[in-house]
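Sequence in, structure out.
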Amino acid sequence: MRFSKNVCLAIIFVLLNMFVYSTSFAKEDPLEEWSPSFDPSKAQYVYLLSCVGHPAIEGVAVGFKIRDRLWKETDGKIYVDFRPLSQLGGEKDVINKLKFGAIQGMMSSSVAAANIAPVLGIVNLPYVVDSFEKLEKFRSNEQLWKPYQDAALSKGLQVLDFTGYGSYGWATTKPVATREQAQGVNFRIAQAPVNIDIYKAWNLKFSVLPWPDVPQALQTGVIDGLDHTPIVCNISKKFTVAKYYTQLDYAQGLYVHIINKRWLDKLPPDLQEIFLRVVKEESAITRKLTIQQQEEQIAAAKKDGVTFYELSKEDKAAMIKDCDPVYDVWGKKIGKKYLEQVQNTL
């Protein structure tokens, strides 16, 4: 088949544009600014660490801070190969990889962590660990922390610490200032057993969707509400569609740092001490930064036209009361005595 000169030129033009676009796109690396300033190729121990979140979130960026501090304090013996942005897959897949030792660590969202061990779901129960102050009290109390830390030992995993991504509420495409208005919203919730039970108890319409499906679902109206935090909603541009936010503050969103215990136990004692200390110290620093980041992101969202609401005391009390069946069911899974101890202490 013979082509005319004009057709050939048009084809060449299209191919050149495709080449320019593809090469320019390839150069766009969202993690370029977090690249290590050292050569990790000679590290004796590599710690492959996964997270679904974006490092613009302080609770995620801690992975890079841990990487850099450990490299320095171990004289290059430990390299933390941190992979945010779901580079290693969705959380359910990553949990399986962690159990089998294909990766060594995971900063799991707290909603997904309950799939590993029911005790890890305690931080997602409504109005139990529902503020930054209670979260810090939970972490610093050894009697409360130890059962949580060791909840997944039977699976060869251990919780090291956690960071956060803020207080949970509702981002919606229409105003929700009362429980009654919430009845008309289809909320996206995470693929997590605790959240499903909560929304059933609240008698609210919900859809369980993977996080990558949320933008399209929100834009097309498949969902008109999102159960998440102001930090995540603003940084991930959800507020460009959902212009209203109801501050429920019913739970703290966490990134739970979980390690494969076999890998940890193989570290020499001196490196193990440095490793655990650095993770603990950087996690504590980051939890303070998260409080500041939430305030900043709420202020930025308000400036961009997002309207914030709070439920009345009566509505909040009714929502807590509606969760009695959730506390009962999860009390049996978590351990009734432990749940009561956490509730009474906090």
